[in-house]
Amino acid sequence: MIQAVKSVFPRPVARMALLASGLLLAGACMPTSGTAPDAPTRAATITGPALPPMKSFATPHPSPPQQANADIARDFLDLSFMLESGRALPRLTRFEGPIRIGVTGAAPAHLHADLERLLTRLRREAGIDIAIAGPNEAPNLTIAAVSGQRIRQFLPQAACFVVPGISRLSEYRGRRNNPETDWARLPERRKVAVFLPEDAAPQEMRDCLHEELAQALGPLNDLYRQPDSVFNDDNVHTVLTGFDMLILRVYYAPELRSGMSRAQVARRLPGLLARLNPVGQGRAPRMLPPAPRTWIDTIQTALGPGTGASERRRAAHRAMAIARAEGWADHRAGFSHYVLGRLLQAVDSDAAYGHFITADRIFAQSPDTALHRAQVASHLAAYALARGNAAQALTHIRPALETAARGENAMLLSTLMMLRAEALELSDRPAAARSVRVDSLGWARYGLGAEWAVRAKLREISALNPINRSGG
What we know:
Layout (H helix, E strand, L loop, with lengths): L12 E4 L26 H4 L22 H12 L18 E7 L3 H18 L3 E3 L8 E6 L1 H7 L3 E7 L7 H4 L16 E6 L4 H16 L24 H10 L10 H15 L16 H11 L5 H18 L4 H14 L4 H15 L6 H17 L3 H17 L3 H17 L3 H19 L2 H12 L3 H4 L3
Helix pairs in contact: 2-8, 3-6, 3-7, 9-10, 10-11, 11-12, 12-13, 13-14, 13-15, 14-15, 15-16, 15-17
């Protein structure tokens, strides 16, 4: 949810369109540039004339937050009283009273289904009075499905964004200097609009929905030091986590109200967290230092569109140097290695592999970074597969499959399944390979959307298999 072009549009909160639409979602797991994407493959022939129906996640599996309440209180204050730009917010703002949702535009059926699932979770896990507006109710929070091109006209680097004080995108330019569209000048939240790309893949729409609706309701900032949250610009977690739901439950607790200062909220938080998260009382705080602005800026340059590949690699190297200078051993160090490895794949495969191995070792140290580790596993499995080591590929894939499913990441899940199918093929288990590959396609349709994108991913991963590269 990186704030884009703040100097021109200072008031929306936006989710940045990541490099290649999937930098952190195994968007390109080819470890070398020498494989032939057009080689004959089994994957291109087994799918038949039509892909199977799209799959979707039915039951959420949020893990409870593992942090100490002292850490959560600090994170709550930094999330709630600061914008992503670093600009301080003078007061807490939220909706005071029932929140009623209106949906406008050409919203596809899967968006309505994902929205209903999210609203159910917000009512149950965060205790928020939120629902679709009835026939006689005026919505105070609008979910507007518009084209991605329209969104980019306002925020060229954004995939989606949220703005207070309006309900239609056409209202934004004329009102962007008004107090009601400035988060810092709001007395409370009375009208907010979330703009989602109607032409994006289903998972991208859902990810935007979770991130932007969470910020429409609650905190407007993101923290790289928080490993288990959508309130983090690394975009590893794409659906609201147990930590996020606790943050929103605190945000709408009766002890707080719109207009309270940071100091007033800080005085209420210890008792509030003791009531809502008693297990966090006995945990020792970590108090991770904040990420310096220089590291955040270089990471955003490395991840974001609008710069060339060489400049992104230079930015990733700078971020890695900053992480080392900071002496980090937490998930931000692992993330720095991961980003650098991802960007080095096309020019230095061996160096990229080394960074993935280091990232995996760092992420393995904490249960909070299981999903980070699953991302890395897709790359390590690709390397093993390309080198003909099916057993090693399967070792990387097995635990990552469950993690990806629990994290409701269909793009990652389908990629891991396709890799598993090729590893099974390489192990001379064609029937098992076919079953896994076909099963992956329904998840790929949710994660990638268009049929051409699904088939392209199949070809890309199948081309890693030495059997296919040799024409065997």
